[in-house]
Amino acid sequence: MSENQEAKNGVPPQEAEEDPNEENHEETCEIQPQDEEEEEEEEEEESEELITPQKMIHLLRDSTTLVTNIQTAADTKESMRRTELEEARRVRLEQLMNDAESSQEKFEEITRGWSVAKEKVIPQELQEALNSQQQLCVAIIEDKKKLINELQQELRVRDDRYVKDLRKQEEELALMMERMEDQIKTLTKAYREELAQMESIYQQANEVLLSRHRTEWEQHLNKIWDQELENLAHRRKKVEEYEVIIHNLMLETTDKFTLYQTDLNAQFQALEREKQQVKATNMITTLKKINQKNEKRQRTINLDNIKSRLVSLQTEMKKLKASHYGMRKQLTKKSQCLSEEYKRSVEQYERIQGKKKHLAVANARKFEQMWLTIDEEVKQLVDRVLVIDSQICRSLGLTWQRPPMPFMELSGPIQPQKQPEGPACRAASQQFDNGQASQWSPMRLDLSVRPKVEDNAERKDVEMYKDGTSVQSESGAEVEEGRTETLKKVMELLCDEAGYLVEDKLLNLLAPLEEEEQTLLKLASLLSTFNIEVEDVPSLAEFLLKYAHKQREQTEDVCVDSGESNKNAEEVETHLTSELIDRNQILPVLKSFLELRAS
Amino acid sequence: MSRSPYPPGAKLTSTEDLRKTRRIIAEYPDWSLTIIPCLSNLCLQSIVKNFEEKPIYEELSDTQKDFVHEGLSTSLPLHVTANLISDGVYWKRCCEQRWDLCDVSLYGHSWKRMFFERHMENIIELFIPDVTEPKTVLEMIPHCNNYIKRLDISQLLPPIKEPQKEKEEEEYGSELASENEYEGPSMDHFDFNILLDKLTNLEELHLVYRVKQCGMNFEWKLFEMTDRDCESLAKAIKSCKTLKLLRLHLSHIEDKKCRLLVKWLLDHPSLRTLDFSHNVIGDQGARAIGKLLTRSQLETLNLCDNNIRGPGAKAIAHALSKNSTLLSLNLRLNRLRDEGGEAIGKALLNNNTLLHLHLGANELTALTAMALSKALFQSNTLKSINLSCNNLGVDGGNALVDAMSKNTSVTECDIRQTEVDEQSVSFINQVVRTNWSVEQKRHA
């Protein structure tokens, strides 16, 4: 404000003072916006969110005013300078006018002087006038020179001032540029800050948007995932169902297929079988043919063989017949002499039997006598023992009692268990001997000549025997089992007792066989030797049993009644429980049975 | 001395020859197929090499064009390249080779336009009348006709003076000579008549009649245009129907030349911006410009730093009151005083188009402020007003405060250095800011 006032004064020397003022003013102007800027910055820092279009405008405006301040200041200076110039020009013009007027007057004076001088004739006067005129001219010239000098000085001052002004303008220009640069810097800074803020805000907004979108996205994604999973599960289920169905279908088809296959197989097999059968029939027919051929050939061969053998056998038979006749003659001779020898030996035997009976009776008597004597001695010893015992008891103070002694009443010998060979036995052996002498000889021949035929006969015997037993068992209903049992045992006994009658050869042959079979074979051979038919076997057994009973009774009678010796009595009794018949009596009984039959 | 029949040098050469004849490709350790360029590349290289004799460009594909752009020599004659090679890397290379500072954004991001405009400017700036053949300019016209939109001529050289004396004589009798039209052919600058009517795309013309770096050869004559210059320029501008902007500054245009120019600029079909800043136009010139305002489509008028006083301002104000095209008026650094200021204030009452008004440094006082405040009070068209460097005083400030309290359009009001009291200043600034923010919101 002060500038204009100063400018009004319009005095050149004050201009020098003007500059600092102006500068100061500019500085103040400069400082203000800076302060504002700082404030703005602070404000910006305080409230970054609300930016500052207005602040930016302020900044812009202030900085531009800061720059344009110089221009306006220069403008004012220029306008001032112009007013000054005009003023100075006006003054100068006035001065010049005045000067011109005065010089005009002087010039007129001089011209007037010239007319005066023309009138003058006197040279001295003329000289004076000339001098005065000269002086006037000099004065005018001096005035002019003065004026020129003044003007020139003024010009010089103006030149100086112009130079100064130029310098000042240069400075101002420099300042202006500086300020512009400052402005540019501050503005760029401010714009950058604004940009940064905007960016940050946009970034935040972006981030918010992004996060929101992301969450949305994730939600959608999750939804989609869930849906997908559901779909997947659904699909999986379906797949499983379809798999099951397919499996079933597969199974069905395979079943069908297998069925079909089995059918086919069966058909095939049937066909195969037929084929095989056809083949087999073919084979069989061929084989039969072959067989027939073979048989035919063999038969022809066999027939030839048989024929040749027949011839040879016929010749052999003739030879054998011849030898048979010879042998028979010899045998008849031999048998005659042997029968004579037999008569003699029978007579000898009867004699030995008589002797034997006699000896037996004598021994029995002797034995009885011995037994009685020893019995008496023992009784005596017993009495003595009793006496001693009673004495011991008495001495001891005990009441003595006579112990019961039943055996004291008994007397006589105890019946012996085994009876020596009775008369029955003897009879049996006799009979056996007879039988043997009469019938064994042809048998032996047969055995030696044809063992196989004999075997067959024996087997037949066994079968017949068995049949017989079975028949017997049927007839005898009461003692069905017992009888067969007894029969069997009787037979066994018979075998054992008459075993010696079996030939040694036969025994050797039978050795590898089992015991039962052995007995059977033996029995069969025995029966055949005894000339007993199979039908007669049970009757034989009955006979044996009866005989055994009779014998027992006999022996008992003997024992009880008197010392009539029958040793077998007690033995039979004891055997009744275990054994049916006394072994020793079998042979005589058998003999008697044979005699009975023969009669 | 040597035992061998041949001199040693000869022997050496023979071995070298042997080596050459024996050399086979496999002996190169770093030989590989990839070093051999493609046939297409070779073709392109040969095209680039023989471009002057056989220019092939239009037939190429884009990538091949790029290759050619990269490879072409920048020293090729312009008659070959100018209308053939499209805007691209080649012109960038040409520009960067010729000038250090290349701001392509000032040229509409076209390197080719930049090159030709600057090329033409260089030619004109270095054109010495009577020495340089006009043919040099005329030859260039068909090449750069399509690309020049703006000519920013920062100097125009005068013809070379033959003797020193003549110059002195002219110095003395310049005023007389101009009047007598005895100027001689010497001082006329480049004649734009030969150029402007042929540049069919020219839109802007910036002219300064001055000599840069004259050094100790300084003469005032070097910094002004002659009458004949003026006439020829005026005719040239008249002939250029596409011109939108004429800027003729720092050229010592006084009333007479101004009137001459305006006479030819009347009813110009396309001129929108006129800039006569930093000249010495007085009231008569202002009166002529006032006439121009009524008979043109001018939107921007810049008359800053001239010598316009009250009467001239009155004439302009009168034109302004009738004009309906002017948007911006700049009368900075003139001598309008209250006489002119009040006239303009009154004119604004009848004007509904002017948006920007600059009346800085015009020795205005409170009276003008009151007149303007009336206008501001009434109309809401004016957007920016600059009254800086005037002695408005407290009363003027109060008047403005009153006006601004009702106004809603002004978004800029410069009242620095006007001795208005601080309260008014702050109030006005506040109103301006609110208006501005409202305006911004409306735009947004």
Can you walk through the features of this model?
The complex is a heterodimer of chains A (599) and B (444). Chain A has 599 residues and is mainly alpha-helical. Chain A is 88% helix and 0% strand. Chain A is rod-shaped and about 280 Å long. The N terminus of chain A is likely disordered. Chain B is α/β, with parallel strands linked by helices. In chain B, 47% of the residues lie in helices and 7% in strands. A 9-stranded parallel sheet of chain B has the order 1-2-3-4-5-6-7-8-9. In chain B, strand 3, helix 12 and strand 4 form a beta-alpha-beta unit. The radius of gyration of chain B is 32 Å and the shape is elongated. The N terminus of chain B is likely disordered. At the A-B interface, helix 3 of A face helix 18 of B.
Keywords:
heterodimer; A: 599 residues; mainly alpha; 12 helices; 0% strand; rod-shaped; disordered N terminus; B: 444 residues; alpha/beta; 9-stranded parallel β-sheet
Radius of gyration of chain B: 32 Å
Helix content of chain A: over 70%
Silhouette of chain A: rod-shaped
Oligomer: heterodimer
**Helical stretch count of chain A?**
12
- The residue-averaged pLDDT of chain B reads 84
Task: Based on Cα principal axes, name the global outline of chain B.
Answer: elongated
Secondary-structure class of chain A: mainly alpha
In DSSP terms, counting alpha (H) and pi (I) runs of 4 or more, how many helices of chain B?
18
Topology, number of strands of chain A: 0
Span between N and C termini of chain B?
Answer: 101 Å
Instruction: Please state the structural category of chain B.
Output: alpha/beta
